[in-house]
Amino acid sequence: MRPDDLQQLTLPGSVTVRGDLVLVNVTTPDVAANAYRGGLHRVPLDGSGPRRWTWAERDLAPRISPDGRWVAFLRVGERGGVPQLHVMPAAGGESRKLTDLRLGAGAPTWSPDSRRLVFTSRVPEAGRYGEPREGEDAAPEPDAEAPRHITRLDYRIDDVGFVADRRARLFTVDALDPDAAPVELTDGSFAVAEPTWTADGERLVFVAERDLGAVETLDTDLYSVPATGGEPELLVRSAGQAHCPVALPDGGVVFYGAESTGVHAVARNQGLWRFDGGEPVRLTDTETVDCEKGSGPAVVTASGVLVAVRHRGAVELRRVPPDAAGATLDELELLAGERGEVRSFAADGDVVVAVVSTPDNTGEVVLVGGGPLTDLGSAVPLRPAVELTGAAPDGYPVHGWLVLPEGEGPHPVLLAVHGGPFMYHGWGFFDEAQVYAAAGYAVVLPNPRGSAGYGQAHGQAVIGAFGTVDVDDVLAVLDLALERPELDAGRVGVMGGSYGGFMTTWLAAHHGERFRAAWSERAVNAWDSFSGSSDIGWYFTEAYCGPDPAAHRAMSPLTHAGKITVPFMVAHSEHDWRCPLEQAQRLFVALRRNGVEAEMLIFPGEGHELTRSGKPRHRQQRFDHVLAWWARHLG
To answer: For a 10 Å CB count at each end of the chain, is N or C smaller?
Structure first.
């Protein structure tokens, strides 16, 4: 895969099924238009091959109604490119637009009677984000808006922006009445997320901060409100966090949740919980089961609850028995995703479908128990991944992957460290590894202590210990790869983003003799300023590093920048609010003043997610710069 192949990628996303109708949205980056394109595709259950089902510029988040007659989805391309809710007959035909909201609509959920939809939308205050002031026809320009009066620590989110003046609100709409307008059920005094219907359709259940956000907190609970409107009521007080509620036929609810206290919510496994009116019960084991809510909410079936679980670099579809109580991973039936990554899943009765990617396939739709239905992945040539297992110096098991280029070698090597740190490299498609391998580099992908998918204790091993066992594990995986004769141990570079950028700088400072050069991207380099400048800094620094400023300095790569001598690229996004630009600037200045061959690359208008969801043109330009850097320093 070359940088210009980015626009050839086809990435299957959300899947839905009802009867013999399976729909999945497919996205392709359009570099020329600097936008993302793609529609809904129908995937026949007989395996006869997919066909395009909608033809707009970009449709996503399809949802088939319970009676199978209608399909709701989001369409992007109107009012500045924000998604708006549409509905169309499942038998085909013209779609009808249901919303025209200034900041767009969120993914919908059907009511049990297949008539109404619930969704969220951020509603701007008057005089902001294009909304006119009261009594005026035109909105002020952004630089003429009134000042923001900030009274909370959680006042902004990366890739969203300021939030107190546009909190997400709860809406319903009658999808079958062409004259119906969306009905707003909350007033914006608190933010709502992930709404669903109760089994009888009488109430809505949603996620909100504890005490409806009276004070900033990481704790979230489940609330309910009448579907016709009214005051929200506490439904479930969680053990720390609650996410993605799903109604049960008997009136209960299942949800993802983690147990935590105060700011200490990092590196916690998400389990499946059940609430039937008393105290919520955790159905899955805390240590071994970590549900991946990014793959979608749980799906309730007659034979159990389907969940996606992070496991040693895979995201597996597993079934939780109806009578489970603290079930371990081994007690959950594996349905799909072994040595793969389940991106989304859905079920209708006994029919279960999932979108699964692998290192050399961007995604295929799989009928569980029946094999692949269709390969919607890209035609771009992709390389497989080789699994690496071994031990760190203290005997702790280490795990990672190696993506090899074509040819016999010896190949130059790139050690690429993931972000998080409670994330993972794994068995799913990773565009960066493919681009670097196609350019002739062997790419090493370690999952050190601190990563997700290896048990909660593994994830928490770096709390208060950044730069210790995580470094040992990363270098141990690198050494495993360098044992192969086709790799050139004399030409090794190190790179990574976010926590991976932290690790890049740390390795360059403490183990610089092992690397020819370094590429650190969107990194946290200094915990002192990160605490106040990052959108998550008000809790993340203490949660991982503790409250002691001396510990913050000791665990900051910037403190050790004077030891760095290798050529060093500092890459960052101008509007990154997760690891703000000042983190890059401070490191760049320190390196240059120390005489290091340091450069800085800044992407205008981008946030922390540049490499995954940034503008396609910037993503391709970034790849060009990365390859040019390594061509200079690794040959």
So the answer is: C
